[in-house]
């Protein structure tokens, strides 16, 4: 079985903050805290640190993201971009390859009648 957001990606559905809860509850709680509070004093930027085989590098969530501070006004955009990165952008090549193989066996239109719970 895969994680719920995987099935949502297969169906072309938007992934939400709530989807994060079942995958990484600590990360979900952190993002939820940001959403419910003023994150200005945290000095968060529109970027994420990624680890690749022991090497850490920074990924901008949007152009010049490392120069943009997360504020109370833009925190929803930040959370949406974090979720987009964690679940979609960083695995897009792999997901495309999976879907290419999957659709050779089953037409994608045939599974669109299901929701992510039924597809699981």
From TrEMBL:
GO terms for biological process: protein ubiquitination; regulation of dendrite morphogenesis; ubiquitin-dependent protein catabolic process. One of its GO terms (molecular function) is ubiquitin protein ligase activity. InterPro entries: E3_ubiq-protein_ligase, HECT_dom, Hect_E3_ubiquitin_ligase. Keywords: Transferase, Ubl conjugation pathway. It catalyses: S-ubiquitinyl-[E2 ubiquitin-conjugating enzyme]-L-cysteine + [acceptor protein]-L-lysine = [E2 ubiquitin-conjugating enzyme]-L-cysteine + N(6)-ubiquitinyl-[acceptor protein]-L-lysine. PROSITE patterns: HECT (PS50237). It holds the Pfam family HECT. Its EC number is 2.3.2.26. This is HECT-type E3 ubiquitin transferase. It comes from Pundamilia nyererei. The gene is LOC102215450.
């Amino acid at each position: 079985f895969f994680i719920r957001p995987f099935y949502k990606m297969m169906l072309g559905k938007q992934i939400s903050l709530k989807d994060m809860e079942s995958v990484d509850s600590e990360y979900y709680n952190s993002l939820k805290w940001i959403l419910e509070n003023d994150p200005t004093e945290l000095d968060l930027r529109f970027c994420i640190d990624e680890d690749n085989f022991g090497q850490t590098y920074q990924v901008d969530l949007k152009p010049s993201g490392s120069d943009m501070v997360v504020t109370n006004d833009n925190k929803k955009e930040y959370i949406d971009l974090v979720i987009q990165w964690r679940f979609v952008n960083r695995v897009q090549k792999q997901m495309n390859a999976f879907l290419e193989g999957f659709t050779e066996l089953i037409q994608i239109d045939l599974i669109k009648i299901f929701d992510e719970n039924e597809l699981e």
